Amino acid sequence: MSLTLLEASKYSTDMLQAGVIETMAKENAVIEVLPFMTIEGNAYKYNVETALPNVEFRAVNSGYTAGAGAAEQKVEGLVILGGDVDVDKFIVQTRSNVNDIRAIQVQLKAKAVANTYADKFFNGDNSLEGQANEFDGLKVRLAGTAQEISVQDAGGKLLLDDLNALIDAVDGGAEFLFMGKATRRLVTKLLQSSQHYIEQGQDAFGRPVSGYGGAQIRVIDDSILPAGKIYAVKTGVLDAVCGLENGSLSVRDLGEIDSMPVLRTRIEWYCGMAVFNPKTAAVLNGIVAA
């Protein structure tokens, strides 16, 4: 069974690490719901099915025509994501709550890590200048494929048929519909105006979550997912979309640094993502608010 970071953190005896992971999961829905697969080394090689083998009917006393399916080999590499949290020794000397100050700064850094991973999950493109150290996200992976679809209305008006087509584009149906807040308002208005039943549920922290067509509507900050698009995703290790990591997220108190008068905490994560079945993610483009 695959585990999300939040579920895996329940088995951790490192309270600092567990607290950081919980902060990350609360901050961003991608971190909350995405299962992560632990791999050895710095990359993972796998095959993606591209064509099924032939089958046929045969007559009595006749044979079959041999044939084999086709697969494309892919390699997913890990990237290094993290940062250092420094608290000046002056603060240590002059404040009595230095541990609280360090904890607050670590939480802020954890939120930044969560949002950065989510941003790259959707928008990562390591072919761009200055972004060679990140992984490719869904925007790059879906570009130019049948999984990239557009709204039917020429003016960009969102219709129920568009949502249905997006969900159906995912093999077995989407589990999650990721969208920004502005787009979520459009979806909510559409469902309410059509008097369609809006499914209700809860996230891992008991917060209310709406849904449509069996998929949870999960909101991503507009700075990561701007208005105009919705991603539909099915998650799963070895058969759908998942995260990759080598070991768990590392949170280390490095203590006082010789070269600087600070106390340092380092968050570091060897991570990535994989799409084992290209039909387990899709994107709807071209939504216009008006």
Number of helices: 8
**CATH topology grouping:** phage-related protein like fold
Oligomer: single chain
Q: What is the CATH class designation?
A: Alpha Beta
Shape: globular
Structural class: alpha+beta
Strand content: 25-35%
- The N- and C-terminal alpha carbons lie at a distance of 43 Å
| Structural domains: how many | 1
Task: Note down, in words, how this protein is organized.
With 290 residues, the chain is α+β, with helices and mostly antiparallel strands. It has one domain: phage-related protein like fold, CATH 3.90.1690. Helix content is 28%, strand content 31%. The chain is built from eight helices and 15 strands. A seven-stranded mixed beta sheet has the order 6-15-11-7-10-9-8. Strands 1, 2, 5, 12, 13 and 14 form a six-stranded mixed beta sheet that branches. The longest helix has 26 residues, at 98-123. The chain starts with a strand and ends in a 5-residue tail after the last strand.
What's this, in brief?
With 290 residues, this protein is α+β, with helices and mostly antiparallel strands. It is built from eight helices and 15 strands.
Give the SSE map.
Layout: E1 3-4, H1 5-9, H2 15-27, H3 29-33, E2 35-38, E3 43-51, E4 70-77, E5 79-88, H4 89-94, H5 98-123, H6 138-142, E6 148-150, H7 160-168, E7 176-179, H8 181-193, E8 199-202, E9 208-212, E10 215-219, E11 230-233, E12 241-245, E13 250-256, E14 262-275, E15 281-285
Parallel strand pairs: 2-12, 6-15, 7-10
Antiparallel strand pairs: 1-2, 3-4, 5-14, 7-11, 8-9, 9-10, 11-15, 12-14, 13-14
Keywords:
phage-related protein like fold; globular; 8 helices; alpha+beta; 290 residues
